[in-house]
Amino acid sequence: MKKRYLLLIIIFVFAFALRFWRLGEVPPSLNWDEVALGYNAYSIVSTGKDEYGKFFPFVLRSYDDYKPALYTYFTIPTVKIFGLTPFAVRFPSAFFGVLTIIATYFLTKRLFPNSQTFTIKNLQFGIPEVAALLLAISPWHLQFSRIGFESNIAVALNIFGALFFLLALKRPVFLLFSAAIFALNLYMYQSSKVFVPLLVLTLVVIYRKELFATSKKFLFSSVIIGIFIAFPMALYMVGSSEALARAQGVSIFSDTTSFLAENAKRLQEDREKNDLLGLVLDNRRILYVREIVSGYISHFDLNWLFIKGDIARHHAPYMGLLYLCELPFLLIGIYQLVFASQKQGVSIKTKALIFSWFLLAPIPASITSGVPHAVRTLNFLPTFQIFTAFGIFVFLTYVFRLKHGIFGIRSRFILYGMCFIVITFNFIYYLNQYFVQQNYFVSADWQYGYKEAVFEVKNIENKYDKIIVSNKPHLDQSYMFFLFYLQYPPDKYQKEAIYKSGGFRENHVYGKFMFRPIIWETEEKNGKTLFMGLPEDFPSEAKIIKTINFLDGKPAIKIVEG
User: What HEC string does 332-373 produce?
Assistant: First the structure.
């Protein structure tokens, strides 16, 4: 037993190193969500209010996004200790990312209590260790463990909540922890508002006999705790028009103009042709259902999972979300788990939970645009790793029984060696793509250049009466980058800020700074105005003070005297 925990400690240390090494430098820049989370933590710890002056909010307005605020509160201690830095903002995500590895080990151990084990160099391992190791090196999990993303901590809370629920079936006191964790998760990320209730319902249905046989005292107390913690968020969702602003903004129903125009055109053609079947199939309700089903199914696209991923910030360059070498073991694991029997140490309830979790994960994202989406479906984890770990053990068991050999070398050693080489190469390639190539290839996608530009402006701002900064892409939400990197006093900002609600593209004014699109032809040029914008915002004859390049050498930001 001690040797098994020794392997777990090694995995833990490895996971820690992968998540914390150069955490503030890779990815190369904070994105707009990260600086908002960090500055609001700085604002709350300094004044008790967020950037908009709201006292200890549990929902942040942030870019009119209205996101759950729990990640910001987790960031407060790290900002207090490390200052307002990229490392401080990303620390909570990396920390919970490491804890998730441990939670996955113990969850998998509860699901496969009698799994077969193998021993290599006196280190014993089973399905739990392999699942934990796969998650420790997972490109999908690492990508979001090293970014200040709420969804990554939401995954950790999912796993801890499920783990404590299963532990509570024998020790009911753990049910209190499970209820509290699941309820807190509603304050972490938008998709949790959909996924967590579904996961809790699934656990209750599958383990209802064991659950209702436990102590009624703990059962009742856990319900009260869950309701007590979740009630403010539930009340907010019901009573506030802002509650679902983000969901409405990314919903497939949000921009229906072109969709309905095309639909009306089809219906008109169906009427002219007297096509009764077409009239049924082209009904907009049917089309919406089709879009939702299509969005759901898109998350099982192997090309998306293993080859291309989605937007650049969600995966390493030229890689998917999972290792290509995992694919055969994943397919083997899914197939074998379907037909696994109790004699193989797999209970029906274990299978029901894993497959339910796997099939529920894409539901929150299926009604949104831009699918498949790696962030909104991070709830998939750790099911992919559990399936793959199970498939690896089926493979190891089969190969171990092989007796014949080639050139005097046993077949199993040849197969083990080939697999080790392929997996090692795939892992090393990923490390290079993430830690080396990513900064070069996709620094533009990470809004690189803000830090350098802000400090350049800071050094010369006293020479100018007014500073105008573009907020057009890729300089979206430029006002927040200035607040963050200048560590602008929150109490001062709350008093002097002028902003107008405008969805994700609102303009801001505070102090001598104005954040809006730059239209060079109409701008006042008196030698006392400093402009910071996109290279295309300025003509060649403009007085350029500084050009900041992306890491691939292409111009990113220009600072110009007007």
Answer: HHHHHHHHCCHHHCCCHHHHHHHHHHHHHCCHHHHCECCCCC
